[in-house]
Amino acid sequence: MHISQLFLPEVTDAIERGDLQSLRAVFEDLHPSDVAELVHNLSSERVAAVIRLLRFPKGIDVFEQLDLQMQADVLKHLGRIETVNILEELSPDDRVDLLQKLPDQTIESLLPLMAQAERDEVKKLIRYGENTAGALMTTEYAHLPAHIDVSEALDLLRKGAPDTETIYYIYITDSERRLIGALSLRELVLARPTEKIENIMSKDPISVPVDMDQEEVVQKFGKYDFIAIPVVDRDQRLVGIVTHDDAFDVAVEEQTEDVQQLGAVVPLDEPYFQASFWKLAQKRGLWLMLLFVGEFFTGTALRHYHETLENAFTLIYFVPLIVSSGGNAGSQSVTLITRALAVGDVKMRDFIRVLRREAGMGIVLGVFLGVIGFVRAMMWDSGYNISLSIGVALVGVVLTGSLVGSLLPIIFKKMGFDPAIMSSPFVASLLDGIGIVIYFNVAMRLL
Amino acid sequence: MHISQLFLPEVTDAIERGDLQSLRAVFEDLHPSDVAELVHNLSSERVAAVIRLLRFPKGIDVFEQLDLQMQADVLKHLGRIETVNILEELSPDDRVDLLQKLPDQTIESLLPLMAQAERDEVKKLIRYGENTAGALMTTEYAHLPAHIDVSEALDLLRKGAPDTETIYYIYITDSERRLIGALSLRELVLARPTEKIENIMSKDPISVPVDMDQEEVVQKFGKYDFIAIPVVDRDQRLVGIVTHDDAFDVAVEEQTEDVQQLGAVVPLDEPYFQASFWKLAQKRGLWLMLLFVGEFFTGTALRHYHETLENAFTLIYFVPLIVSSGGNAGSQSVTLITRALAVGDVKMRDFIRVLRREAGMGIVLGVFLGVIGFVRAMMWDSGYNISLSIGVALVGVVLTGSLVGSLLPIIFKKMGFDPAIMSSPFVASLLDGIGIVIYFNVAMRLL
Do A316 and B302 lie within an 8 Å CB cutoff? Predict the structure, then answer.
């Protein structure tokens, strides 16, 4: 299954013996992604040696599959000319991503060595905001005028093909490069050679504006099953395309970010084992400390009710039960709503609908747990009044949990923040404090 | 941006007035995905009317974009012949998915009406286990023999094209249908017309076995940037292809499932607002109850230490602080490891490496929080011994949290379960109880 694992001993062996010939033989037969996987645990110096060893264009193909940090590290071990050769062969979007990883003075020293066309491309792409369609797109796409016929179109494509990232969707532009149509290679191949492009293209194709957030661009791919989607500027001029494989990678990255935030970790931006120990400790420690300080409030709340507590000591045994139920209901809501916002199932205008639904849900679930809690307390001989306090407090706590957990992500999104930073431990911590206030207020009234 | 929202008032209006003509006019101009989005909040009876209204093949295209439950509901309002017409036009994988949603007797009554070829296809596909490559693949792909030349190949493709889901990758098979090569439409279009296929195809293309788990199939797409991947049986015979759009949908679905499980919700399998209130209440209530019952243990643990508690009452104010820190560290670890397992960053063989890393992390983070906790307790005049107990307990609790949170998902995966069911609230609950045991044992020793 894992073809690269089979080769690992051979490869390590060959590298240690400095046996470049057999190394090259092994690599030439593998898919570039497999070679990249094989070498990704080696030092960047060794990876640079491997890239140099492989014949053009295999070396470039492997380089493209390395992750960004490794690419940047590998360049340090290559000469300026080699670096420029690689940069020129990369697709424009990958090239800009890589350049943004390099120190400013390195960029300054490399740019003059690049061809004018590539240099202009870099300057154009580097302008677009991070996480927008513009930053994600490539500028190497197939485009044709509308007035030519199918056989002329195929000729043009054959000439331009080495430079385009995909020719499966072909975009039709007018004399001012405005997007007026689209055509799949499949339709083109199946059409009569003398047919005019304007007669077989689909008009007004779906496109995205260059400043659209990449998360929204990814949602379009989920909806329309495209291989690529065209990107236009404010005047409807075609400026690039986003391809399905980049959209796929972004979908996975954004998802990883959301999951990590929901679990109260500042997003790692790199695989688990590649993140350095101290960087990871920082990213986790920051959140742990915030949550820890948040819990001071819970302690203060408990202390505030010490009189009630001294009079009815049994109450203390149910504190974990009650506060964690609020936190759990809150975690459920925050997870459901954050995910629904991310995939577009819930929109900002659904605010009231979410509120109503979660209020109903909180009451139903609260009564359900309240009854179990009441019975459990009675079985522990806690007395009727204490048992009733516990039951009633559970309804209040679970209801509050559902409401807080569902509204916080929506409010945060409205304020322009990422809704996923309302992590489930954060909501749980918040509800620990609120839960104690609710619990003791109910108890003071009923005892 | 949301083209379909612009049309919504018009559409609702036309439906209420029964104005089918203007409805058809609006829909004919829209992308099928947009029509599906527009109608997805209507009753299934109305959607059936819309499908009937649209001319072939638009009606089918819209039907394909509805979610599975809506498809099944719509069929109830269509006649048997209409149903069979739709079923025959669906791609084989979508057809099987839909049939599996229908009651057995409906399938029995429909199968005899379908053409022999489609019927055989259904029987073949329905055999494959859920969530495998076989269940995800389509059997309509482009395949060619190796000995013909490029122009013959293009002719064959033109003839077969209406029945294939994608022709951008073409698979080359021998006389026994074994997969021996692959070719992109791009390469074919760019090649000389007289060139033999066997000379331009790439040999031994990457493929997946028919019983591979769909999550692994999706990982291949992330790695290789394919538009489609071929699926082979045990004898290397080509049996189907998985296309990029289906892989994308599965990636999003699997991610949603993981997130919901991590947040302690039994996966919904449908968008937030489409899940019925009571079904959702059940899926949340089940987990809440389990976690609730789990917290009984925490209460029992607290009760167990009532003597210590009565002697040093101040200890109680730090219970929420200490137990929640363990839960938070555990949530972080469970999130990081579950996600890393899902995307393949951490493999099962990394068990020991994870253990070492998380142990180190737990100690570093525990000491960090322990120092803050000690200072905080001193500031609250809790006395040196109590403050020290709190500091030491925090180290133990955070360390335990990191270890439990990281090991549970790995152990669960090893046992063949989904690692994501070790939800972050579950780990937090477990650590509430453990946290109290650690805290009071430390306190009893130090006081």
Answer: yes
Entry pTM: 0.79
Residues of chain A found within 8 Å of residue B245, distances taken between Cβ atoms: 221, 225, 244
Closest alpha carbon to B36 in B73, B69, B4: B4
Look up residue B275 and give its amino acid.
A
The answer to whether the beta carbons of residues A134 and A231 sit under 8 Å apart is: yes
Nearest C-alpha in B relative to A61: B224
Chain B: residue whose CA lies nearest to A203: B29
Crossing angle of the two packed helices A244-262 and A319-343, in degrees rounded to 10: 160
Q: B165, B204, B272, B283: best mutation site toward chain A, by most A Cβ within 10 Å?
A: B272
**Cα gap B334→A272, rounded to integer Å:** 12
Distance, CA of B178 to CA of B237 (rounded, Å): 4
Give B108 to chain A, closest Cα distance, Å: 32
- Ordered domains of chain B (ranges, CATH): 3-131 (1.25.60.10), 136-251 (3.10.580.10), 277-446 (1.10.357.20)
CB A31 within 8 A of CB B229: no
Max Cα distance, chain A (Å): 94
Residue-by-residue pLDDT tens, chain B, 447 positions? 345 556 667 776 776 777 777 778 778 878 888 888 888 777 888 888 888 888 777 888 889 888 888 888 888 888 888 888 888 888 888 888 888 888 878 877 787 778 787 788 777 777 787 789 988 898 888 889 999 999 999 888 888 766 677 788 999 999 999 999 999 888 888 888 899 999 999 888 999 999 999 988 998 888 888 889 999 999 999 999 999 999 998 888 888 888 888 888 888 777 887 788 888 888 888 888 888 888 888 888 888 888 888 888 888 888 888 989 999 999 999 999 988 888 888 888 888 999 999 999 999 999 999 999 999 999 888 889 999 999 999 999 999 999 999 999 999 888 888 888 778 888 888 899 899 999 999 998 987
User: How many A×B Cβ pairs under 8 Å?
Assistant: 309
Mutate to test the interface with A, among B328, B345, B374, B387 (most CBs of A within 10 A): B328
**Number of CB atoms found within 10 A of residue B183's CB:** 23
A280 neighbourhood in chain B, CB within 8 Å: 361
Q: Where are the beta strands (DSSP E) in A174-329?
A: 179-184, 202-203, 208-209, 228-232, 238-243
